[in-house]
Automatic annotation (TrEMBL), chain A:
Residues 4-237 form the ABC transporter domain. NCBIfam families: CP_lyasePhnL. Pfam families: ABC_tran (PF00005). The keyword ATP-binding applies. Gene3D superfamilies: P-loop containing nucleotide triphosphate hydrolases (3.40.50.300). SMART domains: AAA (SM00382). InterPro entries: AAA+_ATPase, ABC_transporter-like_ATP-bd, ABC_transporter-like_CS, CP_lyase_PhnL, P-loop_NTPase. It comes from the Bacteria. This is Phosphonate C-P lyase system protein PhnL.
From TrEMBL, chain B:
Pfam families: ABC_tran (PF00005). Residues 21-265 form the ABC transporter domain. InterPro entries: AAA+_ATPase, ABC_transporter-like_ATP-bd, ABC_transporter-like_CS, P-loop_NTPase, PhnK. One of its GO terms (molecular function) is lyase activity. The keyword Nucleotide-binding applies. This is Phosphonate C-P lyase system protein PhnK.
Length: 238, 271
């Protein structure tokens, strides 16, 4: 059973401040991710791996294609969804961890991680307990939970980010270089979280910087097709 | 425990609540000058819609039209009232005031414009509750104390005049005074500009919590993209009286489509 079905996805940036420069980033992207499966996105640096995740999360707009996501109401095309629909998908169906945590002043680590659960309708106490357990699993001890993560190290912030992403048990989890700033022990925890997600029938789509992680957790790899030469032309500049 | 062994959360059926406010094809003119051109938007319960743009783009005029303080030259504003979705133009002046007082709240940029500077902080906070017919002094005072604490003002200041408050405290007092009636629709006009950054952070944090807890619908006018990102789920970008781009807040800020939005986003100085 596919959780995600991507077909012919294309994305380009039009840089109006650079005279309308067209910067294609994705073209003809097509793959599926099934329940219980981890698919690793691979490709050379700059091939659009992060942009692909952001487009699927609704953070970037797309120019072509479809990305159908399985929901209780059937398959929904993320690329055609309204902002309200995207927000609902983010609450219940898809989670995403960027490479860096966006820190909000005055908001505690516990609250950051509990928030997705509260948005799913859990009460504060239950959400707090689950968030604390997830943080502890990622080796963030309890005395850090009341603190805003602004002063945390890069690795600690990334673990807060991952706790927030995994805690909601979304059917689709998207991860952008989840272990890039983590030491071996914490990378092993992330590996365990991915395996648990797979075993519970969820789907994981990830970009890994570490080839060992790909071998250990990914069932398949999807190599992002390179952009054809003509797509680099900039008609507006010629 | 890493994760519970239960399967993925069954998605809750999304509550299909309709918009609390709908604006369709609004135009507004001062004499020959067109201030707003073909503006349409909707606001849903539990969401913050930020209207961003530079000063003079028509943001505040739009907010005043949506609040019923101004009447559009063309177009229609509809809002949920006690009798369902109604065009504001169909309401009597009295019914509109009633709607504004009982179901809406308006926080303006300068708290001195909204507060009564000659009556105590507690008097300011409970004014709306008294207008709603509550008279029990002890209960009202208890409520005033509760709201002062909510906006992080020392309850010992309950009987002080607003004159003795700092700018940031005045703004928090205005927010307490507005939110006490638990409005379904909240209008925020540059609520944190002109405040110190530390006060701004505290105030934004407060607003964020109150909004998500009370399932309010919020229209937030701001020129500050960081404020919009922090509070809003959706953003509409205004320029020369038009909405030139609208969408999911993080999408508009991270992948802006319109040349002007790209300019706005790229002009922000990183801290």
């Amino acid at each position: 059973m596919n959780i995600l079905e991507v077909e012919n996805l294309g994305k380009k940036f039009v840089l109006h401040l650079r005279g309308g420069w067209h910067l294609p980033v994705l073209q003809g992207v097509a793959f599926t991710v099934a329940a219980g499966e981890c698919v690793a996105i691979t490709g050379t640096s700059g091939s659009g791996k992060s942009s692909l995740l952001r487009t699927l999360y609704g953070n970037y707009r797309s120019d072509s294609g479809t990305a159908r996501l399985r929901t209780e109401q059937g398959m929904v095309d993320i690329l055609q969804s309204s902002p309200q629909q995207i927000l609902a998908l983010r609450r219940h169906v898809m989670a995403y961890a960027s490479q860096f945590l966006r820190v909000i002043p005055r908001v505690s680590t516990l609250e950051i991680v509990a928030q997705p659960l509260m948005e799913q309708g859990l009460d504060q106490q239950m959400a707090g307990e689950r968030a604390a357990a997830m943080l502890s699993a990622l080796n963030l001890p309890r005395h850090l939970h009341p603190l805003p993560p602004a002063t945390f190290s890069g690795g600690e912030q990334q673990r807060v980010n991952l706790a927030r992403t995994f805690v909601g048990q979304h059917p689709l989890v998207m991860l952008d270089e989840p272990t890039a700033s983590l030491d071996g022990d914490n990378a092993a925890v992330v590996q365990k979280l991915i395996m648990e997600a797979k075993h519970s029938g969820r789907a994981v789509l990830a970009v890994f910087h570490d080839p060992a992680m790909v071998r250990q957790v990914a069932d398949r790899q999807y190599f992002i097709p390179s952009l054809s030469e003509h797509s680099h032309e900039n008609p507006e500049l010629q | 425990m890493l994760t519970s062994s239960s399967p993925a959360h069954a998605p809750k059926p999304t509550t299909a609540l309709g918009p609390v406010l709908i604006a369709q094809n609004l135009y507004f003119q001062f004499g020959n000058q067109i201030v707003l051109r073909d503006v349409s938007l909707e606001v849903f319960p539990g969401e913050v819609l930020a209207i961003v743009g530079e000063s003079g783009s028509g943001k505040s005029t739009l907010l005043n039209l949506l609040y019923g303080n101004l009447t559009p030259s063309q177009g229609i504003v509809q809002a949920i009232s006690t009798t369902g979705l109604q065009p504001l133009s169909a309401l009597s002046q009295q019914t509109l005031r009633q709607l504004q007082r009982s179901r809406w709240g308006y926080v303006c940029q300068n708290p001195r414009d909204a507060l009564r500077m000659t009556i105590s902080a507690s008097g300011n906070i409970i004014e709306r509750r008294m207008a709603m017919g509550l008279r029990h002094y002890g209960t009202l005072r208890q409520e005033a104390r509760h709201w002062l604490e909510k906006v992080e003002i020392d309850p010992a200041r309950l009987d002080d005049l607003p004159e003795t408050f700092s700018g940031g405290m005045l703004q928090r007092l205005q927010i307490a005074r507005t939110l006490i009636s638990q409005p379904a629709l909240l209008y925020l006009d540059e609520p944190t500009s002109g405040l110190d950054v530390s006060v701004q952070a505290a105030l934004l944090d407060l607003l964020r919590k109150l909004v998500s807890k009370e399932q309010m619908a919020v229209l937030l006018v701001t020129h500050d993209l960081a404020v919009a990102r922090l509070l809003a789920q959706r953003i509409a970008v205004m320029r020369h009286g038009e909405i030139i781009e609208a969408g999911l807040a993080d999408q508009v800020l991270d992948d802006p489509q319109h040349p002007y939005t790209q300019l706005l986003v790229s002009s922000v100085l990183p801290a």
